[in-house]
Amino acid sequence: MNKKILGIGNAIVDVFAKVDDEFLIKRNFIKGSMKLINKTEFEDLKNNIKIEKVVAGGSVANTMAGIAHIQGKSSFIGKINSDNFGELYKKSLQDINVNFSYLEKKEDLSTGASIILITPDSERTMCTYLGISSHLSANDINEKNIIDHELIFLEGYLWDKGISEKMFKHLINIAKKNKIKIAMSLSDIFCVKRHKQDFCNLLKNDLDILIGNENEINELTNKKNLLDSINELRQFNKIIVITKSAKGSMAIVNNEVVNCDSVKVDEILDLTGAGDLFAAGFLKEYLDKSEIKKCLKSGSILASKIIVKIGARLN
Q: Are 158 and 141 in contact (CB under 8 A)?
């Protein structure tokens, strides 16, 4: 039986463009980071790049798409407007068999979009206009859309908006009442910096699984190296998954550490979505009750498939 997973996150259209390092320097962008921008900045940036590709994205939606790709059953809730980007968003999820559980309405704000600037070294720098996606509230979450899932996957980015905290709590209550497991990704090192205490509290009280990369995990624990972070995190008695790029991945489970090598590729084209697809492989195997080592392996395989192409979708 295929266990169902529900992802809840920012519904963002990804706009891909190739730029040189000079372009980032001129605009004071920090390479590899995610910067929130307003509508005016978004329009200005859009007019100064050559768009390569436009697809529906958002971290958790990418993970749900990855799960659908490996024949898992995934659903997604995210807030869109019934505008062009919104229509594109909805259709691109439906086309790959991800159940889209949010009914869009005519909204004041447009559907969110992220301009992903890819430099020659394949690093991605994101400039995100959240639009309506950041207004996902408790009112948008219907209990009947949640109860037939085994696991809910959330993104740290959701915590960036005032109303989201309330929405998170609402969700967690529904999940606990219905014995649904909760997983979360840390999203981004700056996101962890902004919400460190909240994330620690969530880990302690509410989450079953936490996924983050080495830098995000060290930031969360205020440690300089991973060994110290691991020792700190053992006390939580949760499943904590840590990705380390080419150095592989690991999980802390029941006080034990399980390691896994990365899958080598010939040439990396674009790192967009590597973490999202890793999460897809891991969570699908986890729901299939596989051993943790196999979950990590599956995550590594999917991550290796996405970094050899542009964008965050395997389909």
A: no
